[in-house]
Amino acid sequence: MTAAPFGLLPDRALIRLRDPSDPALDALARQLADQIVSVPIAEVAPARWIASQVHAALEAATRDEAFGDWVVRAIAAERARWRADPGPLRAVLPADVVPPLREVLRRPWSPSEDLAFRVLDQAAIRTLVGDVLVEMLHRFRQRVGKVDGGLLGGIGKQAMQRGKGLFGGLRENLGGVADGLVGAVKE
Fold first, then answer.
1. Which domain, by its residues, includes 88?
2. Which of 9, 24, 102, 172 could form a disulfide with 16 if both were Cys (CB 3.0 to 4.6 A apart)?
3. Which residues contact 85 (CB under 8 A, 6 or more apart)?
4. 57: number of CA atoms within 13 Å, CB side?
5. In the chain, what are the helix, strand and coil shares in percent, each to the nearest 5?
6. Using one digit for the tens of pLDDT, what is the confidence trace for 75-111?
7. Residue that finishes a domain, picked among 109, 132, 160
8. How far apart, in Å, are the Cα atoms of 169 and each of 82, 160, 174?
9. Which one, of 184, 182, 76, lies nearest residue 128 by Cα?
10. Domains in the chain: how many in total?
């Protein structure tokens, strides 16, 4: 027997694998998937490495506004889907997931200070803080107006009218205050 027939085997195998209609490609894909699924993840990568990769991905995601928008949309879609399903969460989860999930949820966890600041230091949070400060000042002004009660000749009302021109951009000014508050808390 000569070596020529064996030399053709790799070529024939490649031809068969490159042909999408040949069942050999599907068979190889199934065998590969079965092999991958049968190997425990701990043998492929150490748990610390996986945790570090998840940590890096989460940190990178906190810096990306597009990812934040995607998360908001995904959460809204899942909430709508879960509201439509009246059954308990356990009915949706596979049985073998429940014990490890319970164990993970029992562990205390708090995010790192740096991660918390990156999550909180977003444009939406700054806008929210600015709106809260404006609302607090508005309520304070209403309370002062009630205390004045016209006894001082409406001095509070006059001061407010004059202050409108002076502090017309109060919302924008307080947006800067919100930025300053976040910066001060970081320090």
1. 44-109
2. 24
3. 92
4. 6
5. 80, 0, 20
6. 889 888 878 888 887 787 888 888 998 998 898 888 8
7. 109
8. 43, 14, 9
9. 182
10. 2
